[in-house]
Structure prediction request, 204 residues.
Amino acid sequence: MRPVDHEAPVYLYQLAVPGEDRYPSLALVNTRFTLSHGAVDLLDDTEAAHLWLVRHELLPDRVALNGRQSGRLLALREALRTLFEAYGDGRPPPAESLATVNSALAAAPSTPRLAWTADGPRRADEPDTGNPAAAALSLLAEDATDLLTGPEADQLTACAAQGCTRWFLRSHGARRWCTTKCGNRVRAARAYAAKRGRAGESGE
Ligand SMILES: [Zn+2]
Prediction:
């Protein structure tokens, strides 16, 4: 585990959404969400986008990110969200979203490598070091491709809490909320509605 960065916004550590730790593409989609006080965008400027990529070990800290590259990251995020939604609805996504992901894949693909250590052979793909920002986007697009075509794809779920726009990987069939926080929010809202309903019936 990485040490907690005390300068980071506290909600980065409060909300462990299942699947984000294994799929950075899922984490990317979830960088835009809604809290009770309004919409949050963790990538709302180039510096924030740079920090996010570094934090997810997709970009070396010393490599700068420019506005155009950060714009591409946001475009990829929106395309991936559209793909997740299409997958959830069981329909093909718009061609444009698919094209955005495919151009990210093609821009700076990793080179397949066979590594061999004391533990034996393993696959160790090498990112394109000549174009680190594009390589980061390629890795994210590749990760989403693995997720959508892999055995865990059918666990991909949109949080059912109203206003929450996050996606997560369902660990068991019944789970409908990305975090316990969302689950509690829904239960509290239901209890409140039921209480109001009863108050209404008693002819207050
Ligand atoms: Zn949620």
Q: What stands out?
A: The first strand starts at residue 32 and ends at 35. The chain has a mean pLDDT of 88.
